[in-house]
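Thread amino acids onto this structure.
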């Protein structure tokens, strides 16, 4: 898993952190500013603030762990990466799609070996 490094401290990343805002009128949300991050940096309030866009309303910084990505089906990952039901999805790029599927397959093989 050392191939995935935290954007902030360069330690091994364990999750993808992102800013999300829920639009009450449409019921749709966003996934913006996705970043590979470790647990330590995700729990650092100043780092979380750097990911937050501060646009008001129902918003916040959330994450999805590599373990959760490994447990997802390929169909569920496709839904996560699509624009369906979202106002904005910055994971819907070739770079992030390749990276998320790489995390999925890499962590799935580690899970079978009981490494994670």
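Threaded sequence (116 positions):
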């Amino acid at each position: 898993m050392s191939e995935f490094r935290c954007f902030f401290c360069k330690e091994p990343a364990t999750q993808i952190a992102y800013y999300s805002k829920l639009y009450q009128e449409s019921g749709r949300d966003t996934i913006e500013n996705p970043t590979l991050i470790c647990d330590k940096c995700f729990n650092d309030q100043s780092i979380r603030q750097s990911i937050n866009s501060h646009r008001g309303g129902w918003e916040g910084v959330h994450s999805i762990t590599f373990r959760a990505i490994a447990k997802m089906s390929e169909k569920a990952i496709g839904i996560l990466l699509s624009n369906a039901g979202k106002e904005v999805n910055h994971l819907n790029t070739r770079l992030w799609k390749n990276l998320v599927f790489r995390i999925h397959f890499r962590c799935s093989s580690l899970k079978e070996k009981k490494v994670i």
